[in-house]
Amino acid sequence: MANTLLSIQVIPRTPDGGDSIPYVDEAIKVIQESGVKYEVHALETTLEGELSELLKIVERMHEALVKAGSPSIISQVKIAHHPSGISMDKLTEKYRP
């Protein structure tokens, strides 16, 4: 079982004040390619895995945004770390239909 949930919202600065959604799509692509369990929500994406692995994914997300042309990125990150195990499903099961 995973020991960490990490939610991230990337806020990339865009050249000439353009649309940030294509940059966010690039960040989500990094998550998709990582193979970790994740859920995209309206304002953030939650990943499930091991802490060190998830932090490396955050780093790769930033690298991908810079490569895509973003001159700077702010990320808001929330981490729930439980060495005994944690999962999105367990935390949200009572809210699901």
From TrEMBL:
All copies of domain Thiamine-binding protein, residue ranges: 7-95
Protein name: Thiamine-binding protein domain-containing protein
InterPro entries per UniProt: MTH1187/YkoF-like, Thiamine_BP, UPF0045_domain
Gene Ontology CC annotation, any one: cytosol
PANTHER family: UPF0045 PROTEIN ECM15
Family: Belongs to the UPF0045 family.
UniProt superkingdom: Bacteria
